[in-house]
Amino acid sequence: MDQKRFATQVGRDLAVARDWLLQDQTVAIPTETVYGLAGNGFREEAIHRIFATKNRPLYNPLILHVAEVSKLAEIAENIPDMALQLLERFSPGPLTLLLDKTPKVPDLITGGLRRVAVRIPSHPMALELLGSLDFPLAAPSANPFGFISPTTTDHVVAQLGGRIPYILEGGVCDLGIESTVVGFDGDLPVIHRLGAISLEDLREVVPHMVMQVADSTHPVGPGMLPWHYSPRTPLLFDAAEAAVLESHAPDRIGAIRLSQVLEAIPSGQQVVLSASSDLVEAARNLYSALHFLDSLKLDVIVAEKMPETGLGLAINDRLKRASARR
Ligand code: TXA
Ligand code: MG
Known about the structure:
There is one protein chain. By secondary structure, the chain is an alpha/beta fold. Helix content is 29%, strand content 19%. The protein contains ten helices and 16 strands. The protein has helices at 14-22, 44-54, 81-90, 107-110, 124-131, 153-160, 199-205, 241-247, 279-295, 312-323, and strands at 9-11, 27-29, 36-40, 63-65, 76-77, 95-101, 115-119, 137-138, 166-168, 180-185, 188-193, 210-211, 235-237, 253-257, 270-272, 300-303. The chain is globular and about 60 Å long. The structure holds threonylcarbamoyladenylate and magnesium ion (MG). Residues 31, 33-34, 36, 60-63, 94, 96, 98, 110, 113, 115-117, 119, 121, 139-141, 178-179, 181, 192-193, 221-223 line the site of threonylcarbamoyladenylate.
């Protein structure tokens, strides 16, 4: 695949985005969770371009985005009742479902798996763009594989500028953390990736929802890679601060905090995710905090563990992966 260079443009013109997509190029698009790197989900050339632009291994499958439930029939079949109930409650929104794929979905999208990931985003520009196309958009987060997901167009420019022709400006992502991925193991609804819809909220619709556990019969799924979402600066999650201060000068340490800064570290190197300890607000600010602290080129970033409730679970999941060694 050619690694063409572009003079990347940022704008609000849906027609321009559409034109590039019709030429099998990739375009960064806003969603309510994070910015996505979108391409025609029915065209192998466009799909290959997404993988190449992100440096993403082909075994890690992509989510297909559509504008409405009626568009699902083209890409998914045997949709369980539970899935329909979840769609009813949470779509459009940050819910991704793993469903049996139709033959129309290229194997390249699913990494050869039998099931395809589908989602109906709620960002108005994403919906309008999808509504103007007669194909679904494959869209992983618009960051190089393994690095921090983008929640603003500035983040996309910094990471993929020059590699894509167009970035659709849709403001700061409302939710700031990726969709929750749910699959079905027979009658058992299983969370494959924690995300912007909490376990508690999902259980209001399907009370027996469980978390995916990795064992020999269920190897770790592609959504559960040990390292991911990572800054270039080493990140320590839930570390003893005293020990970190013993081995690093205070002005070389950055900190991600829920509601209060640490006394021993300069406050300009710390980000409070939510002064009121609101975990929805904290999730919204998480990736911006990581992008900002990474740009300071410090020696280390320490991240506080969030309460294990609501979106705290998803934030901890991301911070834990961001702290894993490559
Ligand atoms: O919020 C989101 O989901 C964003 C926006 C752009 O929609 N997209 C996103 O895509 O986060 P990506 O590719 O960064 O993450 C998709 C996750 C990956 O962990 C992938 O392994 C998993 O979903 N996934 C995709 N298709 C799958 C499949 N068929 N089976 C199991 N896991 C799948
Ligand atoms: Mg991603």
